[in-house]
Every structure is written in structure tokens, then in C-alpha cells.
Design goal:
51% of the residues lie in helices and 0% in strands. The protein is an all-alpha fold. The protein has a domain at 3-40. Keywords: Plasmid.
């Protein structure tokens, strides 16, 4: 099994077993990024992040 699939399975199982999933998408994304960083620590893998800034623009009329 490719190593990245083992990472994915380990991360999923940890989040599922510890019941860390929530209904908040942002919280889930932050949790996922933290778990990925911890899982690849000490390996040859790197996490390349692309920062997306989403702005909620609302105009009062």
C-alpha cells in the first residue's frame, strides 16, 4: 500500500475513533491539517499549503 494511503487511513481512524468529527467545516479542516502535520512529521513528505482567502462580501442596500 502506498505510504500516503496509510497516512490517510491512520488519520481517518484516529479522528473516527476519538469522535473528533464535528458539524463545523472550518473546525474539521483545522483538525485535518493538524493530523496531517503530525502524521508526516519525521518522514520525507512535506505539506505544501495553498492559502485561500475567502471573503464574504455583503453590501447593504
Amino acid at each position: 500500500m502506498p505510504q500516503y494511503l496509510m497516512f490517510a487511513e491512520n488519520i481517518y481512524n484516529k479522528i473516527k475513533d476519538e469522535e473528533l468529527f464535528s458539524h463545523d467545516c472550518i473546525e474539521n479542516m483545522n483538525l485535518l491539517m493538524t493530523c496531517i502535520r503530525r502524521e508526516i512529521e519525521g518522514t520525507e513528505f512535506k505539506l505544501n499549503l495553498i492559502l485561500l482567502i475567502l471573503l464574504n462580501c455583503s453590501v447593504d442596500h
